[in-house]
Amino acid sequence: MDKLTSLAKRRGFIFQSSEIYGGTGSVWDYGPLGVELKRNVKDLWWSTMVHQRDDVEGLDTAILMHPKVWEASGHVEEFTDPLVECKSCNRRFRADLPEVEGGQCPVCGTREAFSEPRLFNLMFKTFMGPVEENASVVYLRPETAQGSYVNFLNVQTAARQKIPFGIAQIGKAFRNEITPGNFIFRTREFEQMEMQFFVEPGTDEEWFEYWKAQRLDWHLSLGINKEKLRFHDHGPDELAHYAKTAVDIEYEFPFGWKEFEGIHNRTDFDLSRHQEFSGKRLEYIDPVGGKRFLPFVVETAVGVDRTVLVLLADAYHEEEIDGEERVVLRLNPRLAPIKVAVFPLVKKDGLPELAINLQKDLRAASIPSFYDAAGSIGRRYRRQDEAGTPWCVTVDGQTNEDATVTIRDRDTLQQVRVAVDQVETWIRERL
Ligand code: GAP
Predict the structure, then answer these.
(1) pTM assigned to the model
(2) How far is the CA of 262 from the centre of ligand 1 (A)?
(3) Per-domain residue ranges for the chain?
(4) What is the pLDDT at residue 351?
(5) Residues 6+ apart with CB under 8 A from 421
(6) What is the pLDDT of residue 95?
(7) Which of 111, 211, 221, 317 is the most buried (most CB within 10 A)?
(8) Which CATH superfamily is domain 2-65+134-312 in?
(9) How many Å from the N-terminal Cα to the C-terminal Cα in the chain?
């Protein structure tokens, strides 16, 4: 993890938030390469979950919602972690941490240090409007899902969808985690890609199995190592307050097997609670036969940041090439922030101009690319290997004679000669 964190900073994937002030607790910023990787993850998810289907609609709801939403959803009452406080250093910890269960404070070392556990709500609170009073409390949403539930009928009617259908959202969520950590694994501000699939009660278990398989396939399609993915079924003591059944998709991170996607059968828990708290009917009326019912929801919920961490951890390789060590990110080309780097072999004979022109054409074609003329060709390759760039194009002496360049593959290290005017097509064919 240390190597990954330092590579992420060095190459401009991820920086600590407000670093010059000593950083903020478990909040991270995405640099030039990180933002591209994150956008590619979100675009691929959106393409699979929304564009390639006719039964899922997109939505983008606000972070701030009516405070009653969170009473209805059960988050005000249930979204808590048990917390203990060290009597000596006053640090707070989750009561279920193995270090804490022994009774010794992991920070100051005091024995029998802890207070009785208290429940601590994970939602961030703020105030709407100029008066800071109880009546104006609002919460930063801890999941995007509720925005989809309260808009269920709006979307269904406007899009003229019939059940079964889904609502997909990508957006920020906030949780005041007591023990954040492991880089971007558990943070206090993060992004989710969630899809709520509304089905007729009685068909929910079938749809649960369907989405479980779909979601695993998606992760495999990104090129994530199959051996490092597994399902974990929730036992009764692990289930969230809204779920009848739940399964996690876990990845074997350097710090162990951990969840990065959850698939939940939320039954009609959320819709029936919103119906009760708002006093508005949220039933679906079947256009054929006029049957009225509250749909059940099968949810797929994956973190963008956690997916980025999975992808970085999975792509990171150290290897020896001709006696030299290299670090390489074997990212799927569709996810790679830079698709192609362009180098002049030497800074003479008009090669830089040819390379700059080629990169200009790639830019105009919206292919993320990078021009580099600094240092030996070997060093330039190493920098791109660390950035996960799948192809490096070198303009050399032969380019002046026959208008061809070499394209070097990041993973196989093989080089092929391609006509300059064919480079764009060559790259496109492989994305
Ligand atoms: N709407 C259901 C829901 O929010 P969850 O299992 O609590 O379910 C879904 O969260 C996903 O969101 C997780 O699998 C994880 O990828 C991501 N996530 C949750 N809390 C996170 C945190 N503190 N930091 C980063 N990602 C988080």
Answers:
(1) 0.94
(2) 8
(3) 2-65+134-312, 338-428
(4) 95
(5) 403
(6) 85
(7) 211
(8) Bira Bifunctional Protein; Domain 2 (3.30.930.10)
(9) 29
